[in-house]
Amino acid sequence: MSSPPTLPPSTIRNIAMVGHRGCGKTSLAEAMLHAAGAIPRLGSIAQGTTVCDADEDERRRRMSISCALCHLAWDGAHLNLVDTPGEPSFQADALAGLTAADAAMVVVSGVSGVEVQTERMWRRAQDLGLPRAVVVSMLDRPRADMAAALASVGELGTEMVALQLPIGAESDFRGVVDLIHMTATVDGSTGPVPDALRDAAEEARGALLEAVAASDEDLLERYVTGDEPAPAEIVAALRAAMLRGELAPALCVSALPDPVGVERLLDMLVALAPSPEEGAPREGVAIGSGQPVPVSPHEEDPAIALCVKTLADPFSGRVSVMRVLDGVLRSDSHVICARTGERERVGRLFRLQGKEHIPCDALGPGDIGAVAKLKGVATGDALCADEPLVAFAPPPIPEPAMSFRASAHDHADDDKVVSLLRRMADEDPSLDVHQDEETGDLIVGGLSELHVEVVAERIAARFGVQVDLAAPHVPYRESIRRPARAEGKHKKQSGGRGQFADCWVRVEPLPRGAGFEFVDEVVGGAIPRQYIGAVESGVRDALRRGGIAGYPVVDLRVIVDDGKHHSVDSSEMAFSIAGGLAVREAIAQADPVLLEPVMFVEVVVDPEHVGDVMGDLSSRRGHPLGMEMRGTREIISAHVPMVEMLTYGSDLRALTAGRGEYHMHVDHYAAAPPAVAARAAEEVAAA
User: Fold this and answer.
1) 556 and 510 in contact (C-beta within 8 Å)?
2) Which among 426, 408, 427, 428 is positioned nearest to 418, based on CA atoms?
3) pLDDT > 70: what percent of the chain?
4) Which of 191, 197, 246, 368 is deepest in the core (most CB within 10 A)?
């Protein structure tokens, strides 16, 4: 299959399909591709044969996990469709999809209406200045109701206007009324509006004309005098209002197994969606000077492309999905990565049809395609053919809400697991992969348990390496509550030169967060100067290895005040051992206590969920700090022990119907209750 040549920007429509999981985005993309002749037959999510859900884990779970790019030609236009995941666990990919687009097609289930991810993506598209169109899907399902679905969208704030009415309901949904042209399309044939729907269509058309006229002074003046605008004038005024973000047109469809309204949807997208020339203006920052650089699509300019998505392909390696912002990006050319300053060779360019790679010689301004094996390019990087190098603000990356310890199921794959997890983090910037300095664990942080599980499954499927996941170790500490003094003696004689060292240390508690102090109070040469450093080294090593529970000891002062030495048998090693013995014995006598990390937690919820969330935090030994209203949402602040927050992400979603969000960081350490201390000591003993 060959790719079309470089496309004029005026013919391109870059559209992100967004909405909550299960609203029908992928099925709708399939129906649009089939209607345009881009694919020979309709695929099915149930059978795992759709273009956009091409990965094995997406087919198995029957849901989109990553952004998928596909394209079609319709009525002289080239549509790049970005099918985004609707599961909130994979919202980073959905946000990246909006970065690539010039308009958002918000798909809303006719059964469920607006859900949490729909609202989240609507707000983000609004922040980006993207025009929005609403498509009510699944109108062939039981209990589907277009009016109720549109009412739920209306609560999001932007004025919405219906361009169509459904013909039939639920299993009898068989066509649509076009309110602009006052025609009806039933079973693929277009004709006059049925008499039974004439009154409803006239009323809905009146609401459409009022909304459109209110957005255009000339039309309004004519409308109030009874001069009804022509369909072309309605479309032009509606398009202008949509591009300004004042109106959101609404259409209705069903996708599979028998598509209804899909061709009329394609007509409206071509007529109403902006081209890259008309899309929200892009502005970068010149590297070095920091000056703003407006970017608009012109073929004669040097190429500037933005990497909107990175894919980890087991065969092609790293694949960078690029949106060309300016100029023409050509195969076998060279560009400079604005972030690193390194020169990169652009090999063979291709367009994506789901997982299929369609080679092309060039991508013109405003177009979207991909290139493999760019070495140092990450998601969000700009590639520039010439000076000045321009960088762009990265899309917002949701913070990880849940972390796991990762390890190779087969120890021979330990090194592979680290590198493969980092490759997956290149593909998904919301994934946090790091080595915990305190515990030595390899930590994988994600937006949910499902998010991290899918990452592990993809590594197994793509690269044949199995990753085991477990709850992360909590970085407990130990400290003391009263002073104590103890002796450490190391004596060993085995023929020839022996080993001898004797030292006395005192330990004293320090305030929380004060750390560790070492004080030398030895007088009279009881311990020669050259061995004091060895004593301190032994003390520090013993504190790192832990006290009675096996965790690092903090917030104490250690004072060495006496000892003995031997002129022949004493050595630095002997005094290091003696120092460690002395401090461990002193800690055992100083009323040791286990300290647990306490998090500062900020939870964002709707007012109706405040009581449930507060009660849940209290059940986790949390101490509320206060509440404040920000906009329409409540912000709850609290201190909660880390060990109680390891599964909080999924629990919060269950409490708040998926609408709650939270952030947290370590605030301080506090004494753990006896039951927690006993459990922590058992974990160390079992390790």
Assistant:
1) yes
2) 408
3) 97
4) 368
What are the pLDDT digits (tens) for 431-462?
A: 889 887 767 789 898 877 788 889 999 899 88
**DSSP H helix total and E strand total for the chain:** 16, 37
pLDDT in tens, 474-503: 888 999 999 999 999 999 877 667 899 999
pTM, two decimal places: 0.77
To 10 degrees, the CA torsion angle through 632, 638, 640, 646? 20
Cis peptide before 257 (omega within 30 of 0): yes
The answer to whether 141 touches 110, Cβ cutoff 8 Å, is: yes
| Of 216, 208, 177, nearest in space to 194 by CA | 177
Within the chain, what is the greatest distance between any pair of CA atoms?
A: 117
Which residue segments constitute the domains of the chain, with CATH numbers given? Answer: 11-272 (3.40.50.300), 282-391 (2.40.30.10), 402-470 (3.30.70.870), 477-590 (3.30.230.10), 596-686 (3.30.70.240)
**Dihedrals φ, ψ of 455, to 5°?**
-60, -45
**Dihedral of alpha carbons 167, 169, 173, 176, sign:** positive
Mean pLDDT of 629-657: 85
Using CA of residue 399, residue 402, residue 405, residue 409, what is the dihedral sign?
Answer: negative
- Of the given ranges (81-85, 420-424, 487-491), which has the lowest mean pLDDT? 420-424
**Spatial distance between the Cα atoms of 130 and 273, rounded to a whole number of angstroms:** 10
Read off the pLDDT band of 548 (50, 70, 90).
Answer: confident
**Beta-carbon contacts of residue 671 (< 8 Å; ≥ 6 apart):** 593, 594, 595, 596
Pull the structure tokens for residue 651: 């629990």
pLDDT at 78: 97
Which class for 449: exposed (0-12), middle (13-18), buried (19 or more C-beta within 10 A)?
Answer: middle
| Between residues 426 and 184, the one the model is more confident about | 184
Containing H/E element for 149?
A: helix 146-154
Tell me how far apart the alpha carbons of residues 563 and 503 are, in angstroms, rounded to a whole number: 4
pLDDT over 80 at 630, yes or no: no
With 0-12 / 13-18 / 19 or more C-beta atoms within 10 angstroms meaning exposed / middle / buried, residue 166 is buried
Of the candidates 348, 465, 345, 455, the one whose C-alpha atom is nearest the C-alpha of residue 417 is 465
Q: How far apart are CA 138 and CA 166, in angstroms?
A: 11
Cα–Cα distance for residue pair 660/651, rounded to 1 Å? 10
User: In angstroms, rounded to a whole number, what is the distance separating the alpha carbons of residues 515 and 7?
Assistant: 64
Lookup: tokens for 542? 């013993």
Question: Distance of alpha carbon 454 from its chain centroid, rounded?
Answer: 13
- Give the closest residue to 89 by CA, choosing from 449, 429, 433, 447: 447
